[in-house]
Write a structure and sequence with these properties.
The chain is α/β, with parallel strands linked by helices and about 190 residues long. It is built from six helices and seven strands, in the order βαβαβαβαβαββα.
Length: about 190
C-alpha cells in the first residue's frame, strides 16, 4: 500500500476531495483513497471520484435530515472496513456521525470546517464571521466527536476578511485555504 488508506465522505461538490486526489497524484501526499461515499446521489464528489478512477458509492441516508439511521451508519462502517480504511475524512459531509462510526474509528475521523473554531460552528460560518465584524477568519481541521464541529482541533489556517468581501468572495478564499490545509493534515497521519 502507498501511504495511509483513506475513506472520504461528502455531500456536495467535492473540491476538497479533488484537492486530496490531486495531491496524491502529484506525489505530495502519501495516501490512497480507497472509497468516496456520499449521502447525496447527485453530489459532484461522486463524479470526481469517478474521474480519478476511485471506488465510490451512494449511501441512501434514510428518514433523518441531519444524521444517518443507526443501521445505515453500521452499513457505512462495514463499507469503510471492507476496503481497509484507516482514516475517515469528512469533506463537506452534512450529517452528524453517531456511536457506530465514532466507536469504529476512534480518533480516526477528521473534518474540515470553514471557520477558526471554536468560533462559528454550524452552517455558513463565513457569513457568521462577516456579520460579526471579524477581520480574520479561516478554516479548521478537527477530530470528529458527537457534537457539531466541536471535536479537538488539529490544525488551522487564517484567512483575512477584506473590506469589500461578500459572502461569496470570502467563502471562495477560505476554500482555497481548505484545499491546502486538508491534504497537509492527512499527510501528518500518513507519516505518524
Ligand atoms: C467546505 O467548505 C467545508 O469546509 C465544509 O463543506 C464544504 C465542502 O466543500 N465542511 P467541497 O464539497 O469540498 O467543495
Amino acid at each position: 500500500m502507498s501511504g495511509i488508506a483513506v475513506g472520504i465522505l461528502g455531500s456536495g461538490k467535492g473540491s476538497n476531495c479533488r484537492a486530496i486526489l490531486e495531491a496524491i497524484r502529484d506525489g505530495s501526499l502519501q495516501a490512497e483513497v480507497r472509497v468516496v461515499i456520499s449521502d447525496n446521489f447527485d453530489a459532484g464528489i461522486l463524479d470526481i471520484a469517478r474521474e480519478f478512477g476511485v471506488s465510490n458509492a451512494y449511501l441512501p441516508p434514510g428518514k433523518f435530515r441531519t444524521r444517518l439511521e443507526p443501521e445505515t451508519e453500521r452499513e457505512l462502517v462495514r463499507m469503510l472496513r471492507d476496503v481497509g480504511v484507516q482514516l475517515v475524512v469528512l469533506a463537506g459531509f452534512m450529517r452528524v456521525l453517531k456511536e457506530p462510526m465514532l466507536e469504529a474509528f476512534p480518533h480516526r475521523i477528521i473534518n474540515i470546517h470553514p471557520s477558526l473554531l471554536p468560533k462559528f460552528p454550524g452552517v455558513e460560518s463565513w457569513k457568521q464571521a462577516l456579520a460579526a465584524g471579524e477581520t480574520v477568519t479561516g478554516c479548521t481541521v478537527h477530530y470528529v466527536d458527537s457534537g457539531i464541529d466541536s471535536g479537538e482541533i488539529i490544525a488551522q489556517r487564517e484567512v483575512p476578511i477584506l473590506a469589500d468581501d461578500t459572502p461569496e468572495t470570502l467563502h471562495a478564499r477560505i476554500q482555497v485555504a481548505e484545499r491546502e490545509l486538508l491534504p497537509e493534515v492527512i499527510g501528518r497521519f500518513a507519516t505518524n
